[in-house]
Amino acid sequence: MAEPSSSAMATLFSDLIGRRVTFSEQLGALSPNGQQIYCVYLIKPMDGYRIIKADLSLLSSFAGALIGLSPDIIKERVEDATMDESLRDALCEVMNIASRIVCIEHRGVFKGLHGDPGQMPPAARSTLRDPYYSGQYKVAIDGYEGGAFSLLAPF
Amino acid sequence: MDLLLVDDSKTMRLLVHRAIRQAGYRGLTVCEAENGADALEKLKSLKPRLILSDWNMPEMSGIDFLRKLREENNLTPFGFITSEASKKFKDLAISSGANFIIIKPFAVDDVQAALEPILGES
């Protein structure tokens, strides 16, 4: 199955938040920074799950930039154990829009995000444990904190 | 009331509001609904000039909402703002009675180009 290119992902997120975003593909394992977030996408019509695994700080940068929060405010809210509702809603919207690039040949439907992978559907956990495809990227965002971003696929 | 904005995401409603203002439509009166069922309820007392709706929403999706409207002979101009970008979805939307589709992420120009034929120049 064809996978999204670094430039396609960079363009989508740049267009979304109105800032320059770059995705650099990494061949080795990524070093995660802090809490990880697992975004689950159901791929139609195959009914398999793809996963985006990324640093919470990175996804919060996308979400915060989308709604006009400064990097300092985002950091403050991320460090707060109970994530602010507006930031969480924005994060869900960012990852919903990302469904366009999660699977370029078929339809990806965003099913939710989890801080604990144990909360994901069993088939999604299986993708996380043993992916057929794994794309690893270092992401940089102009003016905001970047981080690690992985796309995992079962086929 | 000029516009009914239907989306389960507060963030997206905020972004669409902002884009509409930036497109020059500053005086529009906008009402919001969280999904198709909520919108149908609000339409019992509202007559907007345009409905803008997300596609994927809980309780009632945008396409089910549109079909229900057209079944009831409600011909209010209707546009989708969605991340569903495939031709299949565009064809389904148009054949079900949608006037246009704006694909997320969108630019202010996309919103302006879609609204102008229906609401007039900003």
What's the short version?
Chain A is an alpha+beta fold. Chain A has helices at residues 6-17, 56-66, 71-79, 85-97, 99-102, 122-129; strands at residues 21-26, 36-44, 48-55, 107-114, 133-141, 144-153. Chain A binds chain B through residues 12, 15-16, 63, 66-67, 86, 89-90, 92-93, 96-97, 99-100, 107, 109-110, and chain B through 9-12, 14-15, 56, 83-86, 103-105, 107.
Descriptive notes:
- The complex is a heterodimer of chains A (155) and B (122).
- With 155 residues, chain A is of the alpha+beta class.
- Chain A has 6 helices and 6 strands, in the order H-E-E-E-H-H-H-H-E-H-E-E.
- Chain A has a 6-stranded antiparallel beta sheet with strand order 1-5-6-3-2-4, sandwiched between helices.
- Chain A is globular.
- The model of chain A has no long low-confidence stretch (mean pLDDT 91).
- Chain B has a single domain (3-106, 115-119), classed as Response regulator (Rossmann fold, 3-Layer(aba) Sandwich), CATH 3.40.50.
- Chain B has helices at residues 10-22, 36-42, 62-71, 87-95, 108-119, and strands at residues 3-6, 30-33, 50-53, 78-82, 100-103.
- Chain B starts with a strand and ends with a helix.
- Chains A and B meet through helix 1, helix 4 and strand 4 of A and helix 1 of B.
